[in-house]
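Appendix B. Chain record.
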Amino acid sequence: MVNQILLHISNTPSELVEFCQKNNIAVEAYSPIAHGEILDQPEIVKMAEAYGVTVPQLCIRYVLQLGAVALPKTANPAHMESNAQVDFEIKAEDMETLKNFKHIENYGESSGFPVYGGKL
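Structure tokens predicted for this chain:
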């Protein structure tokens, strides 16, 4: 069984993820790069730079370390290749920072979708 949920830095429903994991339900992270809005967060950019990776790579690695499957969306072959290069580990203290990162309030043009607009 699989549960596909909105899961990314700034939106980590920990109780739901833990419930799924305890009940052998795989978690698929929809939009692990926050529909691109995470790219504009200076704190996340700085952390990615500290690891020598891109922000999308940091986001994907974050989801993987939570034990979920990341489903990044791109049609760009270069991005696909880059998104697969996540052979690094985020330190425990940085994972805690990312788990508790401020909630993104505005997903830009995507805010109209119910999953981003908080209507679900």
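Further analysis of this model is presented in Appendix C.
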